[in-house]
Every structure is written in C-alpha cells, then in structure tokens.
Backbone:
C-alpha cells in the first residue's frame, strides 16, 4: 500500500532564539536602535520580519481590475544577528539561554528560553 510521502523537513534546521511575537531591538542597519515586534520568524534562512521595520517602498504596477497600482511599504526580513531579543521581564536587550524548567499547569519539565540578564523565563507569545 502506497502511503503519501510527507513533506521533507530540512535536515539542519537552525534553531532560532527569536520567535514570532517577540519584541526585538535592531542593532545593525538603517533601523538600528529601533524596536519592534516579530511578525514572522524564518528559521530556514535565519531571518525575522519585524513589524514596521526595515521597510522598503515597492512600486506596484496595476494589474487589470484586481490590483491597484501605487506604492506599498513592505517589511523585509532581517538577519537574526542584527536583532536582539528584548526581555519582556526586565526590558533589557539580552542574549538567550536555554534551561529546563517545570512549566505550565502540569509542571512538566520543558526546555525554555531564559533571559541572560534577569534569568527569568521568556515566554513564547505566539504559536506558529
Ligand atoms: Zn530579563
């Protein structure tokens, strides 16, 4: 019996410390010093899209009746090395450590992200 093959996952999927919903500080590039919320994480390419930052203006040609022409602003992906996670607990830009801690109602030990500055758990804001 033939079974439908599942989509193959990339072998070396880089694990990023920054996830969707995190607040990050841009540390390089034209938006250096600005903060924003990660609207999309792209672990395959080690990049994140930060809402309203690293924006480019795109000129769009009208296409028939369906699309209007004009200029739209589009947030381009930023390399994760150019952003720093801002800790929601202490408000400081920080690097991320990993730790095993009992989490949730069942107190099951899970690997969590931990702020290197205040040692508190950085919760995931959004499920992807
Ligand atoms: Zn912290």
Residues:
């Amino acid at each position: 019996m033939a079974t439908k093959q599942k989509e193959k996952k990339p072998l070396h999927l880089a694990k990023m410390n920054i996830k969707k919903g995190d607040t990050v500080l841009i540390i390089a590039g034209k938006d250096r010093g600005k903060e924003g919320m990660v609207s999309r994480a792209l672990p395959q390419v080690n990049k994140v899209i930060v809402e309203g930052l690293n924006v480019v203006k795109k000129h769009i040609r009208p296409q028939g009746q369906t699309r209007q022409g004009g200029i739209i602003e589009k947030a381009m992906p930023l390399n994760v090395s150019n952003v720093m996670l801002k800790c929601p607990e202490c408000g400081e830009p920080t690097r991320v450590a990993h730790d095993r801690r009992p989490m949730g109602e069942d107190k099951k030990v899970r690997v969590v992200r931990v702020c290197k500055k205040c040692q508190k758990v950085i919760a995931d804001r959004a499920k992807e």
Remarks:
- Residues 49 and 77 are 4 Å apart (CA to CA).
